[in-house]
Amino acid sequence: MRSLTHLERLEAESIHIFREVVAEAENPVMLYSVGKDSSVMLHLARKAFYPAPPPFPMLHVASGWDFADLLAHRDKTVREYGLRLIIAQNDEAETQGINPFDTGSALYSQAQLTDPLKRALTDHGFDAAFGGGRRDEEKARAKERIFSFRSAAHRWDPKNQRPELWNLYNAKKAKGESIRVFPISNWTELDIWQYIALENIDIVPLYFSKPRPTVERDGMLLVVDDDRFRLEPGEEPVTRPVRFRTLGCYPLTGATVSEATEMNDIIQEMLLATGSERQGRAIDKGQSASMEDKKAEGYF
Amino acid sequence: MNDQSSFQTDALIAEDIDAYLDAHQHKSLLRFITCGSVDDGKSTLIGRLLYDSKMIFEDQLTALQSDSAKHGTQGEEIDFALLVDGLAAEREQGITIDVAYRFFTTEKRKFIVADTPGHEQYTRNMVTGASTADLAVILIDARKGVLQQTRRHSYLVHLLGIRHVVLAVNKMDLVGYDQATFDSIVADYRAFATSIGIEQFTAIPISGFKGDNITALSANTPWYTGPALIAHLESVEVDAAAAQGQPFRMPVQWVNRPNLDFRGFAGQIASGTIRPGDAVRIVPSGKTSTVARIVSFAGDLDEGVAGQSVTLTLADEVDCSRGDLIAAAGDPPQASDQFCATFVWMDEEVMKPGRGYWLKLGTQMVTATVQPPKYEIDVNSLDHLAAKTLGLNGIGVAEFATDRPIAFEPYATSRQLGGFILIDKFTNATVAAGMIEFSLRRAENVHWQPVSITRDDHAGMKNQRPKVLWFTGLSGSGKSTIANEVEKQLFVMNRHTFLLDGDNVRHGLNRDLGFTEADRIENIRRVGEVAKLMADAGLIVLTAFISPFRAERQMVREMLQDGEFIEIFVDTPLSVAEGRDVKGLYKKARSGQLKNFTGIDSPYEPPENPEIRVNTVDMTPEEAARFIIQQILPLK
Lengths: 300, 636
Fold this sequence. Notes:
The complex is a heterodimer.
Chain A lengths: L5 H19 L3 E4 L4 H14 L8 E4 L6 H14 L3 E4 L4 H4 L8 H20 L3 E3 L8 H4 L4 E4 L27 E4 L7 H11 L10 E8 L2 E4 L14 E6 L12 E2 L5 H10 L17 H8 L3
Parallel strand pairs in A: 1-2, 1-4, 2-3, 4-6
Antiparallel strand pairs in A: 5-6, 7-8, 7-9, 9-10
Helix pairs in contact in A: 1-2, 2-7, 7-8
Chain B lengths: L9 H6 L1 H9 L2 E8 L6 H11 L5 H14 L9 H4 L3 H6 L6 E6 L3 E7 L7 H9 L3 E7 L6 H12 L4 E7 L8 H18 L5 E4 L23 H7 L3 H5 L5 E3 L2 E3 L7 E5 L4 E2 L4 E5 L4 E8 L8 E2 L3 E6 L10 E4 L5 E12 L10 E6 L2 E7 L4 E3 L6 E2 L9 E14 L6 H4 E5 L6 E10 L2 H4 L9 H7 L5 E6 L6 H14 L4 E5 H5 L10 H20 L3 E5 L5 H10 L5 E6 L3 H7 L4 H6 L21 E3 L6 H12 L4
Helix pairs in contact in B: 15-21, 17-18
């Protein structure tokens, strides 16, 4: 007799969830943001269906302001594992005058992330979408089900969630309705990093420290990732050794100064950190119920 | 933070991260729930555990301090409960309204905590949280002692099969850390716990607010000699390990066929262990084979154990698909289509005896009907009450019948193979959770009597194809008139028919039934069964019943062969039907003399996709009848 470790139990639960969805949904898709959580999800999906490839496409919602390294990693991964990739993007952002510098964060995330996501889900007729949400990230997420039901308009009703017992998931739904599924709900940030280290999962180099051109703005350290970055008068990019704990649109994601170039250094920094993972995300600020509001609108 | 605690030590992380990580890779996982009444301090306790285990970061702490000032109930001090009470609506009400999952970790274990609400109307949330828990922490306010809610929560914890119970007597700071108070509460609780079958529990005096006996033993309770809460949580045995000692069972989730040469059966092992070469039996078919390989991404495995998600290949080409169970060949579980179960109703709409619900158990999805409960359990007094149905948060015991045999274990043996959910076929809501007690033997002993003259022979002799023309619509919509006209025209065409309507059924076969929702369902079930027998005899059956619920019409459809059930919606508007009021019933219903009248104080659910739709506004009954017959041709 051997007892499973916590990572083995989490892995087994996630694989079970992936398989339930594939068995019961008609047209599933995986939201692939290319970040560390997505990388773990992809790894779990590959394990769940091995030797078959994951029997669903990847959907990347690209804001147009993604880190160049992230897009390169995405394309490499897709090529290497023979995945089908769908890219959802708001092509009219420029004519609508939407950009991360002038547009307020609420409108920006609605126009560049939530709306393209909803449109892609509707256009392709996906009835189940895997997302990398974790319950330790945020208070509203802590209460969301693993199989989280969405109306035909992609809305979440936190007051009317289906009870979820044992490992029995109810995937029944009416035409037009869909389910967001969170296979790594019960993982914490530490579990994710430990698993990446243990399983040797390839992640975007942005998580590792490297000298990068940066400017300091509104208490955040921003990386000047390409020449579209609009410098304020007097701002001059300074090269600093920085890395990221979480990845979003580059002009909205704060970097941290760090010397961590190895996996164990990253975990060490995380464990000794005094700020939460989402601290570097401009999009989460505002009133403290804002994640719940965004989720009700259809945000992942 | 107290130096006796086993929470993570910053020194080790800073000095030797490799050693730290190595130690943390081998941690186990314990899931537990906290339950208590509204003000027992559950959220405060969990907030305290998160805080002490450094799961709260500075930015969250800043938000917490500003929230504490705005919504808090602890004056100047930090209100830990605000960390846990996630959703905006409940933050304003000051109560937790749903199940929330929280995480923290110590040197020895990772913990997942289900925070479940304490007030009366949310039994379903507690049952949900308890279903995955290895251990329950039952909180008691030291000033109040054992309350009715304590009894209810303890009963539910026991019902859901949780083997480890901690009685946390909280707010000890408010009773001056008095030993006599603690001892008397523990004695009260022991008397109750024993009476419901909880054989063991661990009682700990704590203060979630002040931190006494949480991470370390407190100097305020020198008389207490047991473990601190965390030390206890770190030491209890996890259920998953215990399941390995049982016979092998794995529900098949998905058949993996990437190419013609590979056929793997994917699933999560519910109990036991498996090795290549082991003999297995597929349940319910009974076919046997042996395990060829345990396939994994990292290479074939020598062994799979309970809790793992694996992919098996078998030595023989046996029929096996999602919903089947792969079991140890010499010790398979039972399969039956009738069993007795305790169940918790979780939906606003009451349980309908006789209605078909989806039943999901493991990976099996079948149609199940529930008998009227043998009794309902009053969770406060634990008395058995007579009941015809169950409403939201009701708990009862009833017999269940499924449309085909399923493989299961009693819940007491296996949570995975004894727990099930019921799903409403129309709203798709999860409406109940059940725990199988035992199989009903009669299911094993009733066998179909094979007959020599088949239904095809009966139909062939009458030179027709049997059908059931099911007329549905409001009272006074013209169902009986049109059905009668259809039968007359079919008779002229030399067809063998029979018309079932309220008059010839309500006066005989169904004279014991009234007009409550449950009786209406039973009425339709019996009519459906009679129509089925008549169709077996080769007849074209016409039925004229209001049959207001989609679920029952669907149930009858499923009893019959494909294409035999023709749903005919007599789509006369309520205003027209009420205007006619041939029998004067609408008038009585409007004046309150007649209860449960369809269209007035009882709903009518119109068909979504009827085979035929007619009305008596644009058509005469004769025209409607001709239209219907054209639609059902040919009749041979």
